[in-house]
Design brief:
Elements (H helix, E strand, L loop, with lengths): L1 H17 L10 E5 L5 E2 L5 E6 L8 E5 L7 E6 L3 E13 L2 E17 L6 E10 L5 E10 L19 H7 L29 H29 L1
Parallel strand pairs: 2-9
Antiparallel strand pairs: 1-3, 3-7, 4-8, 5-7, 6-7, 8-9
Helix pairs in contact: 1-3
């Protein structure tokens, strides 16, 4: 019976490992500088985010300081480059999830006007990929460098997502008069975001540790009886 239990555990773990990561939206964030959750000690001129597809011209990016004030100064495309690690995304085709491997990254540079305070900075991105998937998320990092003043005449940006972006997502911009809140995007658009894939980074090791512990509890008594 113990042997059967062990075999079942092994089968469950093998199945969990074999299951691909949650479906990723097309054009997802593949890399960034600074990296997610990293600490920066030197003032950077820009935050770089690399995607698996070139963001549309109407994409929306912001950088917010710990004070709650935006410090982004516009964004621009960079030259495509080979990704250090290929990214696997899943696309739903004819009712089946098909893997697609992306090896080229499309960088975006979001200029940072100044660094008003140490602490956690948040860079956000918002785009709609060519296949209609919404690509939306945030990048958080800690800044521990020297504080720098705002440029002369600088004003914090207050722009919002462009109408073209909202139209691509299928959400109409509300009028100046009070309007009903836009309905939730279709399920096909609200695909799992890249952050969902990080669950597997810690889930698989935890499952392996639990399985090892159970195997030890089941097999050690049996081995002791045989050694007597």
């Amino acid at each position: 019976m113990r042997r059967s239990v062990v075999m079942v555990l092994v089968g469950v773990l093998a199945g969990a490992i074999a299951v691909p990561s949650p479906a990723l939206a097309h054009g997802t964030l593949a890399a960034s500088t600074p990296a997610q959750g990293s600490t920066v000690t030197e003032r950077l001129e820009a935050v770089s985010m690399t995607f698996t597809e070139k963001p549309a011209a109407y994409a929306y990016f912001t950088v917010t300081a710990p004070t709650g004030v935006r410090v982004d100064g516009g964004w621009s495309h960079g030259e495509p480059a080979k990704l250090a690690e290929p990214v696997r995304e899943y696309q739903l085709k004819d009712g089946q999830w098909e893997p697609l491997l992306y090896t080229t990254g499309f960088p975006v540079s979001v200029k940072v006007s100044h660094w008003p305070a140490p602490g956690t900075y948040v860079a956000t991105y918002y785009n709609v990929a060519s296949d209609g998937d919404k690509v939306k998320g945030e990048l958080r990092f800690i800044y521990e460098g020297a504080v720098s003043p705002a440029p002369p005449g600088w004003q914090a940006p207050t722009d919002q997502p462009k109408p073209e972006l909202l139209a691509a997502e299928g959400v109409a911009r509300p009028s100046a008069a009070a309007a009903p809140a836009p309905s939730s995007p279709p399920a096909a658009v609200a695909q799992a975001q890249p952050e969902d894939a990080s669950v597997w980074v810690w889930l698989v090791p935890v499952l392996l540790i639990v399985a090892a512990a159970l195997c030890t509890l089941l097999l050690v008594p049996q081995l002791r009886r045989r050694s007597r």
